[in-house]
Write a structure and sequence with these properties.
Elements: H1 5-15, H2 49-59, H3 65-72, H4 76-84, H5 121-131, E1 133-134, E2 137-138, H6 151-179, H7 183-195, H8 200-203, H9 206-218, H10 224-232, H11 235-240, H12 254-261, H13 273-282, E3 286-289, E4 292-298, E5 308-310, E6 313-315, H14 319-327, H15 330-344, H16 351-363, H17 368-377, H18 394-405, H19 416-422, H20 445-459, H21 469-480, H22 491-494, H23 497-525, H24 531-534, H25 554-558, H26 567-586, H27 599-605, H28 611-622, H29 629-643, H30 655-667
Helix pairs in contact: 2-3, 4-17, 5-6, 6-18, 6-26, 7-9, 10-14, 12-13, 15-16, 20-30, 21-23, 28-29, 28-30, 29-30
Length: about 675
């Protein structure tokens, strides 16, 4: 591919030009000003290709031209119904998450480590150091073969393994969002994930996070009551908000506070501190099973059965009673309905519109489908204030880009998790219990440039910069040993100088291990020789734990008597890499595949023969906002420079590169950030 450095400055300038306040105001596809705030449904005469595209952009993750045409051929009511009432649509083509397993077929942590064990790794480490045992396993400093069962190593194995599996789960979910036949279902899962925000970084158990996500999926467009009860019984949330510690006589108020403040009613809206205290008592005993943390249990012996006063009502309330009391409060519908509206439509609904939306939700007894249908069919949804004015979230940006490109599998390069994280939205790790702020907060000069760089790395892939050397070493050692399917790996990646150096470094480490083993064999053959004459104590320094990595020969290290004198340092230096190493061996790395894109085939299929036709095709396919003549001309000039002519020559060997360069510029523009 030709050098792309000449485009970098242009993309940076375009990315930082004014992000479109009110960029959708002059859209021909947008409804008239009178539609703003009007929840009346549009009719067949109001329906068009562009409005179908708008619906898919907001209620789904965008669409290809064929998908948009299919929706445009329906009536508005049928199109919305096909998105909202999706239960009858077969989604069986989507695979379940494939858990990593050991040689005996056991899943990470809970099936490999015998309970009970503590979720905090440093608790395991300190307990092991103080008591000499944990999990019923003695800390044996004389037998290196047993050390990989030590609780400290188990703790690091658990945390490292959860993060590795979480990385794989992010990739799996991204593929699901891209390929689902029920896109609103996954869009609502994304909404509830931000609303009932839970961090894997505290939960330390990827499987709890997946169980929570499946609860969101089951209830995505169902009943708010079921969601509120479900999140109260969810093992990940129980862990995250410490309801496992909420017992009679020692109530923990975290969950009771957040279900009112963040999950249902809104901060400072219609509740008091006394309501929170008594609600916390109602949720005492809601925990997970001590032998199976993935299963909710109600501990009757930990529950407070006393009288409680909540919202002015007194009784022996249980947790589900609290949910019912919350749903009786005016604040609940007036908080939840506008929040759902803001996620799908725009940031500034009028007070009058908020009241109307709340009434729809309340009148439906908190069933969500009527509210969603009302929103997606409303004139307001297609009005000038709503059309193409929504800033794409990072996850939406990534998935919708692949969708519009016709990609059918999310690539490993660029890495989905790290890209979304750099843009401010790491799946399964929202910033705090309040979730992501969203809206205008997604955009600043740094994230605009990062968004443009994402497009560059899709079209011109490079190795993932966020992975550290140890991860690369392990990933590519595993690759050479055949434990990763690399049939789809791009030669650009496999032959990249960085990865060649990684392989060379791995070979040097192997040679060093061999030399060390030979020196140890020589010492073993002459155990009485004078240390000054040959005992090389620097072979394995006492601080080896600071430098060991995934390639360290632990059996050789363990045999060195020097390390036996440093008890705490040895446990820490051994436990960290041993746990991480074992986790990495069980959790296969995400294959470094690249996006399968064929822009030449795309424009050939559209019957395009001129640069200006290709430019307009790209604008129509990828943007919901029109470009000014000057900005359109920039794209024409970039593509003309790449093709060398105003006419498309399909025999030109660099045509794909020229098309990618032009589309990279388009996707770096501020207009592309709007949905």
């Amino acid at each position: 591919m030709r050098p792309k450095r000449r485009l970098a400055g242009l993309v940076a300038i375009l990315a930082c030009t004014g992000v479109a306040a009110g960029a959708g105001q002059d859209q021909g596809a947008a409804g008239p000003p009178a539609w703003v705030g009007d929840l009346s449904p549009i009719g067949p005469a109001d329906w068009s290709y562009d409005r179908a595209a708008h619906l898919l952009e907001r209620a789904a993750f965008g669409g290809t031209p064929d998908e948009i045409e299919r929706f445009a051929a329906m009536t508005p009511e049928a199109a919305v119904d096909s998105l909202v009432a999706y239960e009858s649509i077969d989604n069986s083509h989507l695979p379940a998450f494939a858990h990593s397993r050991d040689e005996q077929g056991r899943k990470m942590f809970h099936e490999i480590l015998q309970p009970p064990f503590h979720l905090e790794i440093f608790y395991n480490i300190e307990y092991a150091l103080e008591h000499g045992q944990s999990l019923g396993v003695e800390v044996d400093y004389s037998d290196p073969a047993n050390r990989n069962q030590e609780p400290a190593a188990a703790g690091y194995f658990m945390v490292s393994g959860s993060r590795l599996e979480m990385d794989r789960a992010v990739q799996w979910w991204a593929d699901r969002m891209l390929n689902t036949r029920r896109p609103l279902e996954e869009k609502m899962v994304l909404f509830w994930h931000g609303h009932f925000a839970t961090q894997e970084q505290k939960v330390h158990d990827y499987e709890k996070m997946l169980i929570q996500q499946e609860m969101f999926r089951t209830n995505a467009t169902g009943s708010l009551r079921d969601l509120l009860i479900g999140i109260g019984k969810d093992p990940a949330m129980i862990r995250y908000l410490d309801n496992v510690d909420n017992v009679v006589g020692h109530a923990n108020e975290n969950f009771a506070r957040e279900i009112m403040e963040l999950f249902a009613m809104g901060e400072g809206r219609g509740y008091t501190e006394a309501d929170i205290r008594d609600a916390a008592r109602a949720f005492t005993g809601w925990t997970y099973h001590p032998q199976n943390e993935h299963q909710f249990v109600f501990r009757a012996d930990a529950h407070d059965y006393g009288q409680k006063t909540i919202f002015g009502q007194t009784g022996g309330f249980e947790g589900e009673d609290v949910v019912d009391l919350i749903l009786q409060q005016e604040a609940t519908a007036s908080f939840m309905a506008p929040k759902i509206y803001r996620f799908f439509v725009r940031e500034d609904p009028s007070p009058e519109l908020q009241l109307e939306l709340a009434a729809v939700l309340r009148d439906a007894n908190y069933e969500l489908k009527p509210l969603l249908k009302t929103i997606f069919l409303s004139r307001d949804f297609y009005s000038q204030a709503s059309y193409a004015t929504h800033i794409k979230s990072p996850v939406h940006l990534l998935v919708s880009t692949y969708k519009k490109l016709g990609v059918t599998a999310v690539p490993g390069t660029p890495n989905f998790k790290y890209t979304a994280q750099a843009l401010g939205q790491e799946p399964f790790n929202p910033p705090n219990v309040a979730g992501w702020t969203g809206g205008p907060a997604w955009i600043n000069p740094a994230t605009l440039l990062t968004r443009a760089n994402f497009a560059k790395r899709v079209f011109f892939p490079e190795p993932e910069p966020n992975l550290n050397t140890a991860t690369y070493n392990f990933q590519y050692r595993c690759w050479r040993e055949g434990c990763v399917d690399t049939t789809g790996m791009s030669p650009v990646l496999a032959d990249h100088p960085l990865l060649i150096e990684m392989v060379a470094a791995d070979q040097r480490q192997a040679a060093a291990r061999q030399a060390r083993a030979e020196r140890q064999a020589q010492r073993a053959a002459a155990p009485d020789r004078d240390e000054a004459e040959g005992e090389d104590s620097a072979d394995i320094p006492l601080d080896a734990g600071l430098t060991v990595d995934l390639s360290t020969d632990y059996a050789a290290v363990a045999a060195d008597p020097e390390l036996q004198r440093a008890k705490e340092g040895w446990v820490r230096s051994y436990a960290t890499p041993t746990g991480q190493r074992r986790a990495r061996r069980l959790s296969p790395p995400i294959p470094l595949t690249v996006a399968e894109i064929d822009l030449v085939a795309m424009i050939r299929g559209a019957g395009l023969t001129r640069v200006d036709e290709v430019t307009d095709y790209f604008i129509h396919r990828f943007l919901r906002v029109p470009l000014t003549d000057n900005r359109r001309q920039i794209l024409v000039d970039v593509l003309t420079r790449g093709t060398g002519s105003a006419t498309i020559d399909y025999r030109q060997p660099d045509l794909e590169t020229a098309l990618r360069e032009a589309l990279h510029v388009l996707l770096g523009m501020s207009e592309y950030q709007l949905a």
